[in-house]
Specification:
With 333 residues, the protein is α+β, with helices and mostly antiparallel strands. 34% of the residues lie in helices and 23% in strands.
């Protein structure tokens, strides 16, 4: 089996993906250890992708969702390889929109009866008074389309209108998009890794995330905390809560139509009610720190290589047998 990993120079991208080139090299090393013929591609243009199509590997591992092009629309990799009949890991372009746009995932799931935190979006000067806001304080503000804690800090938690205006302006200036404004959930925080196996058995790995307390007395899972790896990752030991977290994660995963694997983020309120927060469908794979492999290790005692093997299995089962060359006279050629 020939496998190729596709990534791009993504250190400055604010979207989800396996991570930096270091993370992609970890995935490469793991696939090589497992015993497959593997190649790592850092793609910058359509020509790079055309080379992969020409080589026609058995499976392409998508480490990012798209390749940004200067002055042109981005190339969405799942769409590109699907169009060219190349087998790839992860979800389709239609499903990946739920990863790229948090509000679309929340709206879709809410319409299907799945609990998600109440929310609205806002741009600078859209609201003039606190009384106009659709949800009462306290609120939590973040970007609609960024990941890895980008745009999230102590000032994301707002209790008054001046703080709201300031954070909306800051997010809009940085991301050129409306801010996602959610009701603040004051309970525990969880993430759940889900891997779908070829026999449609789901391997579920829930963990609790406990960010450190900041100087303002808050526990905010923002960019600095994630970069510093200062959050604590824990087993979910409360059986009742664990059941609710797993149930919500599975319902979200299946309802969104996720293929192969994904990570579902969940938060609770103080009463213990759980709510869908977002879906990460090309999850981070940094060895030793990313939530996807770490949750599989903490909950199911899986090694990094075992996680990679499980992530590949569905895709490898989809691989089509290669036809023998025209001059072959038997199947053993």
């Amino acid at each position: 089996m020939k496998i190729e990993i596709v990534t791009t120079q993504n250190e400055d991208m604010k979207e989800t993906g396996f991570g930096t080139l270091k993370a992609c090299n970890s995935v490469f090393d793991s696939i090589e250890r497992i015993g497959y013929d593997v190649k790592l591609n850092i793609c910058k243009s359509k020509r790079d992708l055309e080379g992969i199509v020409k080589r026609n590997p058995d499976l392409v591992v998508l480490a990012v969702k798209y390749i940004p092009l200067q002055n042109r629309n981005s190339i969405w990799l799942s769409e590109y390889f699907s169009k060219h009949g190349i087998n790839f890991t992860g979800s389709s372009r239609d499903v990946l929109r739920f990863d790229s746009n948090k509000t679309s995932a929340k709206l879709y799931l809410a319409n299907k009866g799945i609990k998600t935190a109440r929310y609205f979006t806002a741009i600078p000067d859209q609201y003039r008074y606190a009384s106009e806001l659709p949800i009462k304080f306290p609120l939590f503000l973040k970007p609609t389309d960024a990941a890895n804690g980008n745009g999230i800090d102590d000032f994301s938690f707002v209790t008054n209108f001046s703080g709201f205006e300031s954070k909306v302006l800051s997010l809009y200036s940085t991301f050129s998009a409306p801010a996602l404004v959610e009701e603040y959930l004051d309970g525990r925080e969880f993430t759940v890794s889900v891997i779908n196996t070829p026999n449609n058995e789901l391997i579920i790995s829930p963990i609790e995330i406990l960010p450190p307390e900041s100087k303002y007395g808050l526990r905010i899972l923002g960019k600095k905390v994630k970069n510093d790896d200062s959050e604590e990752l824990k087993l979910v030991e409360d059986g009742g809560m664990k059941h609710e977290v797993i149930k919500l994660a599975i319902n979200s995963f299946l309802t969104l139509g996720v293929r192969d694997f994904g990570r579902i983020d969940i938060k609770a309120n103080k009463a213990g009610d759980c709510f869908f927060i977002e879906a990460n469908l090309v999850p981070g794979m940094t060895y030793g720190s990313s939530y996807f492999p770490k949750s599989c290790e903490i909950e199911n005692a899986l090694t990094y290589d075992e996680v990679i093997q499980l992530m590949l299995e569905n895709g490898l089962c989809r691989a089509k047998p290669k036809a023998p060359p025209d001059n072959c006279i038997n199947a053993d050629c």
